[in-house]
Amino acid sequence: MEKVKLLSLYFVILVFTGCSSHDVTIAPTQPENYTILGKAKGTANGSIGVGPTTLNFIPIGLNTRIERAYDNAIKSVPGATGLINVTYQEDWFWWVIGSNKKVTITGDAIKEIK
Asked: What's the rounded Cα separation, in Å, for the pair 52 and 39?
């Protein structure tokens, strides 16, 4: 009987243990001296899947999508080292056994002047 209770406890812990991510700062503090190079835009996707919507549990690129979108926005303007006036948009869609989340980061691309 003790083994059954212990296995039940392990099962409950397994079921209620989930994935987590860390806090994300989308745009770091801007430098004191910079020049604006133009508009920048970057996107990145992440999915969470396997099972009905309420039971999705396998993240696929989900936790890094904001950082990837920010990096893609910087790369969209040659010579850019950062962004100011950043906006964040997230769209999602459901695909039978999971969902996809698309992040779009836009802003003014800047280059630090040293």
From this structure: 39
Residues 6+ apart with CB under 8 A from 6: none
The model scores a pTM over 0.85: no
Nearest residue to 69 via CA among 90, 92, 39: 90
The residues spanned by each domain of the chain are 26-112
Mapped onto helix, strand or coil, the DSSP state of residue 97 is coil
Map residue 93 onto helix, strand or coil.
strand
Q: What are phi and psi of 86, to 5 degrees?
A: -80, 135
Which DSSP state fits 52?
S
Query: Which tens digit of pLDDT belongs to each residue from 6-62?
Result: 888 777 776 666 555 666 667 778 889 999 999 999 999 998 887 665 666 788 888
Residue 48 neighbours by CB under 8 Å, 6+ apart: 56, 57, 58, 59, 60, 62, 98, 99, 101
Structure tokens at 12: 């409950």
For domain 26-112, give the CATH number. Answer: 3.30.110
